[in-house]
Amino acid sequence: MRASASTTASGRLHWPQVRAPAQFHPEPGFDVKHAEQSQNRDKAFSQKRTELTGGVPTEASFGAFRLLPTQFLLLEGGKPVRLGSRALEILIVLVGRAGELISKDELMGRVWPNVFVEPANLTVHISALRRTLRDGCNGNRFIINVPGRGYRFVAPVEVSGHEALIDV
Known about the structure:
This protein has 168 residues and is of the alpha+beta class. It has one domain (37-162): Arc Repressor Mutant, subunit A, CATH 1.10.10. Helix content is 34%, strand content 21%. It has a 6-stranded antiparallel sheet, with helices on one face. A 3-stranded antiparallel sheet has the order 7-9-8. β1 and β2 form a beta hairpin. α2 (85-96) crosses α4. The longest helix is centred in the first third of the chain and has 22 residues, at 32-53. It starts with 5 loop residues before the first strand and ends with a strand. The relative contact order is 0.13.
C-alpha cells in the first residue's frame, strides 16, 4: 500500500505520518519461534545422546561391526553403516547392556523420552536394525526377542575404554 499526500487548506502538501513497524520481521520464511525450538531440540538431542552413551564404552565390537556410541556411529569393515538415528539409539542401549533383558517399556523410554509412541515403532526400528546387522544370516545372531518382555543383545561384545570383555 502506497501512502499518498493530501493538500491542506493553505495549499501545502501534507504527508501522512508513517509509523515504523511495531515488530521486526526478519527475512520472509524465517520463523523466530521455530529457530528457538530448533535450538532447544538440538540441546535436548545432545543431552539425550549423552544419557544414552553414559556408561557405554567408547567402542564396542561385535561380529563385523564396530559401534562408536560417543560419535553416534556404526561401522562395518571401517565404513559407516546407514542406519536411522532411532535404530542406532536402540543399538547403543542394547549393546551397552549386552546379555541383559531390556523391557520394551524401558527401551521406548530411553529412545523416546517424554513422548508417547506406539510399541509398533519399536518393532519397526528393531526390524531395521536386524536387517542392517543381517541378524539371522550366516549364523549371525545379535538381537533376540523375549515375547511380551523385551529384547536382549546376545552376540559376544568386545569393548574398548573398559577392560572387561563381555561374552554372552
